[in-house]
Amino acid sequence: MIINILQIILRFIVLVAIQVLILNNIQLGGVINPYLYVLFLLTLPVQTPKVLLLFIGFTLGISIDMFQNSTGIHAFACVLIAFARPAWLKLVAPRDGFEPDESPGIKKFGFRWFLVYASVLVLVHHLVIFNLEIFRFSDFWNTQLRVLYSSIFTIVLIIISQYLMHRPQK
Length: 170
What we know:
mainly alpha
């Protein structure tokens, strides 16, 4: 139990550091902004209490907001996906259900399941981030294009990181 909590705290620190120090400085073509830190919320244990999940989502989002000097946009988006996550997990749950303290991941549930699970939550996160950031209808289609491209790039990074973190045992 203590080891799991320490692993979760370490993963929080590492993902925030990667986001702040590396990924916030990447903007491909002015269209793609990767937000890998969302992976932290996606991989929390399934049985995480809802109130704790919302608190963690707020803490994660406000941490990114402080470093990006944004006005709570990331906090709002993280709380939203933390709120939506339990309902989405119920909809995409495997037939056997989830075991206690199980974390969603490619290793346990397979590529297709994780891709569907992560894609919807990442897309919701990015829709909120980019639409609140622009907050005008004049750039509606450009904003949606940014949402699409950034979501695809973020999902690719999440999939790559899942394979790097969970290498098969030899």
